[in-house]
Amino acid sequence: MALPKILFLDQPHPFLEERLTTLGFPCLPFYKNSLEEIYAVLPECIGVVLRSRFKIDRNFINQGRYLQFIAREGVGLEHISVTYAESKGIRVLYSPEGSRDTVAEHALGLLLMLLNKLALADRQIRAGQWLREPNRGTEIKGKTVGIIGYGNMGSALAQRLKGFEARVIAYDKFKNNYQDEYAEAVGLDTIFAESDIISLHIPYSIENHYFVNDIFLQRFKKPIFLVNTARGSVLNTADLVSHLKTGKVRGAALDVLEYEETSFNFLNFDQLPDPFQYLLQAENVVLSPHIAGWSVESKLGHAQVLAQKIEKLLFI
Q1: Which CATH architecture has domain 5-94?
Q2: Which residues are tagged catalytic?
Q3: pLDDT digits over 259-311, tens only?
């Protein structure tokens, strides 16, 4: 094989290509090429870097007979056949550390918008309405915030909540001894019994599909505010809407929706079902287009994290 190459399917921050080139690996920028064109060069490559333009399935992986790694610029791996890749000796790398801070800030921003009715008030003023009493806000101070998933993003949010004088509790079924100065580790029963606010930070997997559903929401002892910056399909939208209508969920702030394809592409607005149409009209719902991890700083952060992980894999 000629000098091993690294194939780029999406355009990352220039830092990543510059670093890999310096290390001696030619980088192929196939940002707009077809799958057939990509398959033609895969046998020359030891690595693939992407966000979410293609599903990396068994067929894709089988074309890359010399692949050593697949590097995902970002967090979710649901569009990559991770188990199959690893069975072929291919490492799957990703970079949640690159966007931990921006996701935490975005989640906090969504929560502040929701509790203080900022999006609604902004729309009203633009429509010529000056409404003060209906827009009284709710403070974070004194509330119990339940964080579900205490990895990079969940722990970063807890750190930022410390200054708000809230009690922060966290549940993570994949971790042990994760309690720290920012959050108390608890079981789900405590989350259900004591939370006023819930923030979701769990990855998508088949096991987590509709993790938050009707039964889950019924178990809360108090009405809650809900924030989701994780993945859309961990939350059943129809069930959420049912509980928004009853008041069991006082409001929702969603950066992700189950109607997304892969990680970022959205389905046709005109073809979306009634639950989504309800979210569009609801005054106690705040929406953003999967941009919680989409800051100027995180673009560089993902590139730096992947560069470090790829270098470590290839040279250590």
Answers
A1: 3-Layer(aba) Sandwich (3.40)
A2: 231, 260, 290
A3: 886 555 666 777 788 999 999 999 999 999 999 999 999 999 999 999 999 99
